[in-house]
Structures are given as C-alpha cells and as structure tokens.
Give the backbone structure.
Amino acid sequence: MSRIHEALKKAEQERAASQGGPVPSNFSGAESPVTEPRVIDADTAARVAAVAPAVSAHASPGLPPFGSPFSLETMLARCAAVQWSPDPKTMLFLNGDDNARGSEEFRTLRSRLYQIREKMTLKKILVTSALPKEGKSFTAANLAQVMVRQHGRRVLLIDADLRGPRLHLMLGTSSAPGLSDYLQGANDEFSIMQRGALENLLLIPSGCEVSNPAELVANGRLKFLLQRVEPLFDWIIIDSPPAVPVSDASLLANSCDGVLMVVRSNATPVDMARKARQEFPDKVLVGVVLNGTSADTEAYSRYYYGAYEKRGTEAKA
Ligand SMILES: Nc1ncnc2c1ncn2[C@@H]1O[C@H](COP(=O)(O)OP(=O)(O)OP(=O)(O)O)[C@@H](O)[C@H]1O
Ligand SMILES: [Mg+2]
C-alpha cells in the first residue's frame, strides 16, 4: 500500500474516531527518505557559505498562534482531490514523455537547488522575472513537477500571481477556491489545496479575482499559511507576478527563503533584469533561469548557477 493510501486510511480512522471533532495534533514532521544529491564544487561552496538564511517566523498580530499543527493525514484527507488536465505541450513531466525537450534542464535546476540547500535554509522559493510572459509560471510548474519525480518528495505549488494567474490553466484545473480566498479569510488552508495528477504534488491556485492583490499578499496571512504547512513539504514553489511593474513579488519574497529569477532569451532587456534583481535587495538569488533558448542553440531552458549570490547580482540574459 502506498504512503498516500496509508495516510488516507489513517485519516479516515481519525475522522471516524473524532466524529468531526478537532484537528488531531499528532504532527510528526515530513519524512525525507531520499538522499539529496551531494555534488558541489569548491567555488560554489565558498559563495554559498557567504550567504545567510533570511527567514523570519513570527505570527502576525490578529492571527491565531502557530500552536495547532496538523498531520499529513489530515491534510491529505481534507484537501480536494481533483482531476487535472495538464497542457501536454508545456507541462513537461505530466505528458508521459520522460525525455521531453527541456526536462533535463529542470533536472539540472533541481540538483543545483539541492546543492544550495546543503548550505542554507531553502524550502520556499519565489519564482519571478522582470516582465510579463517571460516564463515564470512555466518554470514554477515544471520545477514543482521535477521535484516530486524524486521518490518521497512532497511539493506545494502556489499561484501567488493574483493579477494574472496561469498555473490552473497550465495544469488544467479550477482557479478557486485558492490563495486569495484564504488571504481574505474566506477559506481555511485545506479547502484551497488540490491534489491532482501527481501523488505528492499539491496546488494552491490563485483563488477568486481580487482588486487589492498587493494588500492581500502583505496582510500577514501568507506567512501564517506557510508556517502551518511547511513542515509537511520538502519544497514550496511560489509563482508570482513580474517584479518590475508591481510590488507583489517583493512582498511575497518576504515569506520565502530565496528567489529564482527567470530571464527570457532574446527578450528580457538587461536593464530590466537588473532592475528586477534590485527589487529583492535582501533576498538570496538562488539562480537565474534563461528560458526559451532555441532548440538549435544548445538547451531549451538553462540555469545559470554563476549568478548565485546575495546582493548586487546582475542577471545575464
Ligand atoms: N520554454 C518554454 N517553452 C514553451 N512555451 C513556453 C516556455 N516558456 C513559457 N512558455 C509559454 O509562454 C507563455 C508565457 O509563459 P508564462 O505564462 O510561464 O510566463 P509568465 O512569466 O508567468 O507570464 P505572466 O507574467 O503573464 O504571468 C505561456 O503560454 C507558456 O506556456
Ligand atoms: Mg505567470
């Protein structure tokens, strides 16, 4: 019996025992049976070592304390099991082709992130870029998929682009209820989570359209949500709006451990990439993805590890 089935069975038993009573507080933390890749060169190690973790973990005023954790079983039983219909052209790990063009670059990106994680706290990654249509959602969705391809890894993918949400379209599912509903206090964390095409990949879609996205992502509830759910996941990947035109991404970064910047090949102006980096002066830039390179020049999407440093980095397009 798979772990997820065991978890569901246990949840059923818990529910039957409590007859709809309070959420059990028997949380014991996420399991990590997989050995992480351990390839790292000396130069990288030196740069990584210079970077300090940058996460604060304080509850916001007016929100309940963090004292009521819930178990994996509870989460899996209470989130929605949804049939996804992923776009086979862009969701590289959901189309049945293990060697889809671009998939190898996402495996490389995964290894690089594990290497960085050996040296700093890294679980919550904000995926952003300077401008619209550079491939943030494409990168976030495929990164989440490649992460769960490793046995036992559990990933939460969050669509925090409340202005132009795309993840639900790419994955072929509904956009609500989702993050905006939680941030407004209309839904709890379980009712906004979906599990669909892959056993260990959970999605929080964007939610209902809102008129005040920047205020919502800064109202403290996102941090609270992440505090509650992060022990249950190995990675949390957060998609965001473009960083230069609006402030949402820099506000979201306050709840993340690091920023992954997407640059679109032959499209992102260098000064815009630089400006985007400046939106996150205190955040670790964990990498830059050069997206949309043509098939006849090398790789489909490429990861530049050389850009990894805490501040003052200029993305190379
Ligand atoms: N490497 C790629 N190969 C093929 N299609 C891609 C690639 N990168 C992005 N796309 C497609 O380009 C479009 C824009 O990408 P995406 O939605 O990921 O950009 P974005 O930066 O998230 O845009 P926005 O700022 O509007 O949210 C989408 O239709 C996506 O599927
Ligand atoms: Mg997007």
Remarks:
- The CA atoms of residues 40 and 115 lie 6 Å apart.
- The two ends are 47 Å apart (CA to CA).
- Residues 14-67, 303-317 have pLDDT under 50 and may be disordered.
- Strands lie at 80-81, 124-129, 155-159, 194-195, 201-204, 235-239, 258-264, 284-291, 301-304.
